Amino acid sequence: MNPSDWLARSVSLLRPALEPRAVAAGGAAAHDEAAARPRSTRERLQATLRRRQEALSPRVLRRTLLELQAIVDPQVSEVEGGRRARAVAQWYSQAPLEERRDCWLLMSEQFAPDARKLKAVREQYEAAQGTPEEGQAEIRLRKAMVSPRTRLLQRFAVFPDGMRFLVDLRAELLPHLKSDKRLLPLDAELETLFSTWFDVAFLELRRISWDSPASLIEKLIKYEAVHDIRSWADVKNRLDSDRRCYGFFHPRLDGEPLIFVEVALGDEIADCITPLLDEGAAPTDLTRATTAIFYSISSTQAGLRGVSFGDSLIKRVVETLKAEFPKLKHFATLSPIPGLRAWLGKNAGALLDQLDAKARAELAKALGGAATAPQLLAAWERPLQLEPRSPVRSLLLRGAATYLGRELQDGKPLDPVARFHLGNGARVERLNWAGDPSSKGLKQSYGLMVNYLYDLKRLDKHRALLAKREIPVSGGIEDLYF
């Protein structure tokens, strides 16, 4: 029996059902045990019995650690290491969440860099500064900083479905980070590796059309995150002759888009999503198209959180569109404002405080009583009934402009969609009343949508402004400020 067969067999045999738990001495002792702090894997590996909340017993935990260590054995080849990793991955795919979590903890805690070695080579590097040995000292430092965890994860990426395995592992891991900080090193290692493995230099931009394989179109339906696809007629409309849909693909996740963007071609910047999603609308005459509207951008892999594709995707799509349609001059989005309602709910009173006496009196008259935050929020619940000159409507627009153009968190736009587009060099161009009159749009932002404009000649300028904590906006948005 060759080593890989032996390992695969041992993995399948050494995963018994959870061993009987130790009987507590009494009710109080059991309570104390349950309330005790979680043990590190180092403590558990040295123990005999497991605690109530621990999935794998110390014996099975030790066996699992040996299997993981065998994957990075320096005496075995990359191929053999990949085979061993695949055997562990096969067990992992069948294991319950609690046992998977123990596997994460082993990866996170037992494959850290050697602290003593790292300290020694760092001191050597500092001592070598300005000497002929500086280069060699830097090389030794770099090698010491490559943790066994990095090599372990690299071996998991070797076998054919290994990349899929790692992306899914991180997607399952992410929700547990807040409650268990011990998992943070594993998450950081995965994000760092993914940032390299999924660099845009290794990604392929592909057009998704009605002629694409049905399996790919089904993924488009599954992952659409902005405007739900209701039917096959809906998706066909989004892939019509006056539309384009592009996605980034990675060779190790073939057939699975990492992120995709839906584009509508027309002769003006769209102010409402309804016509774009109208299945009965006639296609635009492409000979007159001067504007590309990015109306939906969806990421598909939760496990790739923190790996940025959007900036490069939009740039590549703009280049592709310009090559196909030389008359295109304007590139803009029609975007939701997902954080607006919550922000207005907290800041309605502050907006009222900024009104002068005359404006506040007009607002009170429109509200049918005193101008208070609860009355204002109640009136905003019926935005489609507000007249164009209504002070209630005006205040909603002014609040939205303030939210998009002035609200920052850690130096970045507060709204997540704004953060994405403004970080890519766009500017806040225009607010659109009743831009999304659907129930989702009304619930999310009282029906408001926003256009972000990608002025290709000013992208770097806009990024520079944002770096100075100044959000780039159009004159129309500035006019709405208090």
Summary tags:
alpha+beta; Aminopeptidase
SSE blueprint:
Layout (H helix, E strand, L loop, with lengths): L2 H11 L13 H9 L5 H6 L11 H14 L6 H17 L2 H13 L5 H13 L6 H12 L2 H9 L5 H12 L10 H14 L6 E4 L6 H10 L8 H7 L4 E7 L9 E8 L6 H4 L14 E9 L10 H15 L5 E4 L6 H14 L3 H11 L5 H8 L10 H16 L1 E2 L2 E2 L2 H8 L3 E6 L6 H7 L3 E5 L5 H9 L7 H4 L4
Helix pairs in contact: 1-5, 4-5, 4-6, 6-11, 7-8, 9-11, 16-18, 16-19
Describe the structure in brief.
The protein is of the alpha+beta class and 482 residues long.
Structure commentary:
This protein has 482 residues and is of the alpha+beta class. Helix content is 50%, strand content 10%. The radius of gyration is 28 Å and the shape is globular. It has 23 helices and nine strands. The protein folds into three domains: 161 residues, Butyryl-CoA Dehydrogenase, subunit A, domain 3 (Up-down Bundle), CATH 1.20.140; 134 residues, Aminopeptidase, CATH 3.40.630; 139 residues, Aminopeptidase, CATH 3.40.630.150. A hairpin with a 2-residue loop joins strand 6 and strand 7. About 4% of the residues have low confidence. The strands form three sheets. It has a five-stranded mixed beta sheet with strand order 1-2-3-4-5, with helices on one face. The chain has a two-stranded antiparallel ribbon with strand order 6-7. Strands 8-9 form a two-stranded antiparallel sheet.
Count, helices = 23
| Total number of beta strands | 9
**For the residues shown, what is the average pLDDT?**
91
| Count of domain modules | 3
CATH topology of the largest domain: Butyryl-CoA Dehydrogenase, subunit A, domain 3
| CATH classification, class level of the largest domain | Mainly Alpha
Using the alpha-carbon principal axes, give the shape. Answer: globular
Relevant CATH superfamily of the largest domain: Malonyl-CoA decarboxylase, oligemerization domain
Rg value: 28 Å
SS strand fraction = 5-15%
| Class computed from helices, strands and strand pairing | alpha+beta
